[in-house]
Amino acid sequence: MQLRNLGNSGTIVSEFALGTMTFGAEADEATSHAILERYLDEGGNLVDTADVYSSGASESIIGRWLSRHPGRRDGIVVATKGRFPMGAGPNDLGLSRTHLRTALDASLRRLGVDHIDLYQLHAWDALTRLEETLRFLDDAVRAGKISYYGFSNYLGWQLTKAVQLARANGWAAPVTLQPQYSLIVRGIEHEIVPAALDAGVGLLPWSPLAGGWLSGKYHRDEPPTGATRLGENPTRGMEAWEARNADPRTWEIIDAVDAVARETGASPSQVSLAWLSGRPAVTSVILGARTVEQLKDNLGAAELSLSDEQRARLDEASTPRADIYPYGEQAVQQRHRKREGGR
């Protein structure tokens, strides 16, 4: 597995991270520990969780594994998140000092660690002044409770505002952003990727297989069944079956992935993950798995090298949609100029 800097920090992480949203939900504790051990044994070192995953169970499962393997803690970059509700009260969510202090301390207890390597804000909070949130994070860095911080699900302007505000006040600045990103979901390339590149912030894409759509398990006009996310819940969130199945672009992308998979002898998942790992600003792609077998297949992407021609075909099939303005071809051209002058 390739090693890369964690965003603009000096900490080194693997190109594929282990996402643990399945821990305590789709994977029991024994399976979760087996997935974690396999990931680490394959050379991975970035483990991503959140307080809200299985209402704290994911963090606790990781914490119990760490307590049984104390010698391995220093080799793991532990990342977690706070923001979403962990109770019914008005201060049991959000990015205020009140909630983040409680949330961070609770995550430290569940994980059984004295510091968190990467603490991430799970989403924007329009009710809390950004200065309040950033000052809390700077205080947490200075106190040694966290090494770095990052964001998740922020828009481009939100990321840029936070970076500039932190720098202007001499506070610790964010090092990462965790957005949804895949061959099927490329809209972040309009604003969020450029903002990350401008700030030197590394991307940690989540849902890199678009909720399983890029794994090869689904087929046109055949509603999924069985033990898959959409088989169990076909209306699940943004990857719901009916809308994506009805969109011709979905199957154009999947056909392109399948073609490259046949050419390379790789699985569709490996092709999709290898493509994403090579995109601008991407630091580490977050892999989620229910089983060790799923993880093993996904990690095979680290051994896959796509040709320029194959990448170009995948790019073309998945080109993000854009209105004529401000993201159409002519509008984009207006944001550049020739050195020699002229239009």
Characterise the protein shown here:
By secondary structure, the chain is of the alpha/beta class. It has helices at residues 29-41, 57-68, 97-111, 130-142, 156-169, 192-199, 229-232, 241-246, 248-264, 268-277, 292-299, 308-317, 329-333, and strands at 3-5, 12-14, 16-19, 46-48, 77-82, 116-121, 146-152, 176-178, 202-203, 285-288. The strands form 2 sheets. An 8-stranded parallel beta sheet has the order 9-8-7-6-5-4-3-10. The chain has a two-stranded antiparallel sheet with strand order 1-2. α3 links the parallel β5 (77-82) and β6 (116-121). The longest helix is centred in the last third of the chain and has 17 residues, at 248-264. The mean pLDDT is 95.
Mean pLDDT: 95
Helix content: 25-40%
Largest sheet: 8 strands, parallel
Structural class: alpha/beta
Strand order, main sheet: write it out.
9-8-7-6-5-4-3-10
How many E-type strands?
Answer: 10
**Poorly predicted runs of 5 or more residues:** none
**Total helix count?**
13
- Which sequence of SSEs, written as H and E, runs from N to C? EEEHEHEHEHEHEHEHHHHEHHH
What distance separates the N and C termini?
Answer: 44 Å
Overall 3D form: globular
Strand content: 5-15%
The radius of gyration computed from the alpha-carbon positions, rounded to a whole number of angstroms, is 20 Å
